[in-house]
């Protein structure tokens, strides 16, 4: 699994001109599910996300987590995080999980966050054509890939 985390002043998701998810200060999270990913990867990423210290403290240092600042989360599914554009001009998405498996793991990830924190969690709609607006703060953008964790073992 992969997540792209953007520290935001605000973020929203619209479908056909209608807002379906909107947050203020917090994280906009783009989530991609790969072949073979499971609940272990989802829980690992959720834990990393909730503990990531990239919000400034009273000294201007990135030392506070989303929990510390009582921020919000906007989680958006994005299978294109598994695009392979090395070989040609048209990306391949064969490394992405099939839609049904990806949706189940996306829903599990969102539910895990809701059950393991008091942070408000908003979402897009899995598989929908969405307009995502992100006001990146900093800018601060971080990529976490569970495959990297496996390399460090």
Q: Order of helices and strands, N to C?
A: EEEHEEHEHEEH
Tell me which CATH architecture applies here: 3-Layer(bba) Sandwich
For the record, the count of structural domains works out to 1
| Rg measurement, Å | 15 Å
Molecular structure report:
The strands form two sheets. Strands 1, 2, 3, 6, 7 and 8 form a six-stranded mixed β-sheet that branches. The chain has a two-stranded antiparallel sheet with strand order 4-5. The protein has one domain (about 1-150): D-tyrosyl-tRNA(Tyr) deacylase (D-tyrosyl-trna(Tyr) Deacylase, Chain: A, 3-Layer(bba) Sandwich), CATH 3.50.80.10. With about 150 residues, the protein is of the alpha/beta class. It is about 25% helix and about 35% strand. It has helices at about 40-50, 65-70, 100-115, 145-150; strands at about 1-15, 20-25, 25-30, 55, 60-65, 70-75, 120-125, 130-145.
């Amino acid at each position: 699994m992969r997540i792209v985390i953007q520290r935001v002043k605000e973020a929203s998701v619209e479908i056909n001109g209608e807002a379906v998810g909107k947050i203020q200060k917090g994280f906009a999270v783009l989530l991609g599910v790969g072949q073979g990913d499971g609940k272990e990867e989802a829980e690992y990423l959720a834990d990393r996300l909730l503990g990531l210290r990239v919000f400034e403290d009273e000294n201007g240092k990135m030392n506070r987590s989303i929990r510390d600042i009582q921020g919000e989360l906007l989680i958006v599914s994005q299978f294109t995080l598994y695009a392979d554009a090395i070989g040609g001009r048209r990306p391949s998405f064969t490394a992405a999980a099939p839609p049904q498996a990806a949706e189940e793991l996306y829903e599990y990830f969102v539910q895990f966050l809701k059950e393991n924190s008091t942070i408000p969690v908003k979402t897009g709609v899995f598989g929908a054509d969405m307009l995502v607006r992100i006001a990146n703060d900093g800018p601060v953008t971080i990529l976490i890939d569970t495959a990297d964790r496996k390399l460090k073992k």
